[in-house]
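Fold Annotation — chain and its backbone
Encoding — discrete vocabulary of local shapes
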Amino acid sequence: CKTRHDPLSSLIMTSKSDKNKRSLYPVFSAMIIMIVGVVQILFFEKIPMNNGLGFDGVVYADMVKQAGGWFSSEKSTDYYAARVLPSLIVHRMLTMVRASIDNQTIVTGFGVFNVLLLIIAAIVWGRIADEVRLSDNNKWLGFVFLFFNFALLKMTWYYPVLTDTMAFTMALVLLYAYLKQSTIGVALCGVVGAFIWPMIMYYAVILYVFPRDTLPIRTDNGRMRYFVFGLATLSVLIIIVRFYGFKGMHTAGAGTEPVHPETLPVSIIALLLYLFFSFSYMLKNISARTMLLFT
């Protein structure tokens, strides 16, 4: 008689070769990030405004130059004070190697710091994928989705003097601490995040108040899961309608490409289909109850 195939067992039990592949993920992902980052820092363009500092980067550069003295300067504001930590770390990095703290060095310093941050983020993502028991292929697929996009493949290096990259990394660390049920880790992420990107602090409070229970691997095969996928896709549609419809963001702003109304419906439909089938594929081993608890 035929042996019944148990998908749950095949998901949890991995062969020795699969474990070897999984153990190589931190090394390969770190190498990819390092190569991309170094090439971008050395050879690719930087934002031309203010010698590579951009707009907000001018303030962050002042933080690097003045360090603690910035808080007593006229340029100090509550908005930027809540984003001071990356600049203080870059200041410390530059003083440790005894580099001259000028605009060009600050741009390079932030670039190097971003490389280190994204390496940490890639490794943490691997831990998150293991914690929720994603397959090796899905772990790498998630890596591609997270790191091979405009925000991290282009903007991070084109406009390096920002706090966005550290906020991204801290958000992943916060998620990992939550999944590991580390209340101390969640609290620390909230405190540190308050000086990187203030919204992290509020997310941390929510996760601290509502800790994660141990969630099961998929045990249902019903239509409920597709209802959850559809609900997530619908939420994206609501955001699009709100901002492009009611708020009038369909018009081009300064320095942005105009939206073409004739192709917008096709683009929206393509995006929603992409999201729905991506959710269906990547979360096929997670129960509807689990997904609802995560959201």
